[in-house]
Amino acid sequence: MPTPEPLSDQDIAARLGELPGWSVSEGLLRRGYHFAGHFPAAAMVIHIAQIQEELGHHADLTLGYNRLAVAVNTHSAGGRITALDFGLAHRIEAVAAAHGAD
Q: Beta-carbon neighbour count of residue 15 at 10 Å?
């Protein structure tokens, strides 16, 4: 599989417009979620893990009592943000509401 190409700042800004709540900080595509309690937050971690295995692309997930932080970039592209990261972000957003995330 070829190494993914890093996105330009303009491409990143345009793609962020499709993902409300997501931002770029310290070279990572990031999003925080809040839940009604611990179980829905933990369940979303498991759901994301399943998606990540399917895509072969993994984010850093930080689970708190009723919070989940997601941070991702592409290590094989020198730790830059690529289309792979946005693809994962879109998949995460697609399941977030089912877990009661806001």
A: 19
